[in-house]
Design a protein that fits this description.
ECO RV Endonuclease, Chain A, about 30% helix, alpha+beta
């Protein structure tokens, strides 16, 4: 039996559009993040990292929608995070790790912006990579009680097409780590 090779489907037009608008996107993300933190006051520190990641994902959606032509952000959970020239674009965020988690809708094939983030002395540092993922790229939790799937940066680098949008890579002996800037 011949094993079928995976067809790499990253949309280079999405990559080009994101790269050419990255400065504007970054400005919008920083502005929105600062406004969010200010509006939360001392309550910000009480938020879980998971909730902060989810909110940051929403802030990135809004920043990309505002900064890039032909982008809309549907507001229904069953829809992609963004539509860029009518093509779906998902956003996944993670804090402090090199692994992203996804739920039920991570199973749809398409383009993704994978964002790693951390705060350093109150400043938001991010790493962004554009990739194309299919359901088979995501790892199942293996548990009947936990539905989330996951994928690591190393798995993306080794198995999927990708383009680093922001930040860099620091290859270690065991795995590759993202560098947030």
């Amino acid at each position: 039996m011949i094993k079928r090779e995976k067809i790499m489907k990253i949309d280079k037009n999405i990559t080009k559009s994101l790269i050419s608008n990255l400065d504007a996107i970054d400005i919008q993300i920083d502005k929105r993040f600062k406004l969010f933190k200010e509006s939360m006051g001392s309550g910000y520190e009480k938020l879980s990292t998971k909730l902060k990641s989810e909110i940051l994902s929403n802030l990135i959606e809004a920043a990309v929608e505002e900064s890039v032509n032909e982008v809309s952000a549907p507001t229904k959970d069953h829809m992609p995070d963004l539509l860029m020239n009518s093509k779906p674009l998902e956003i996944k965020t993670t804090a402090g790790t090199d692994s992203w988690r996804g739920g039920e809708f991570s199973k749809r094939p398409g383009d993704y912006i994978m964002v790693g983030w951390e705060e350093v002395l109150g400043v938001l540092k991010t790493f962004m990579v554009h990739t194309f993922l299919e359901e088979s790229d995501w790892n199942s939790s293996g548990s009947d009680n936990y539905y989330a799937t996951s994928i690591t940066l190393t798995e993306i680098l080794n198995n999927a097409p990708y383009e680093i949008l922001k930040g860099g890579l620091n290859k270690k002996i065991v795995k590759t780590h993202m560098v947030k800037v």
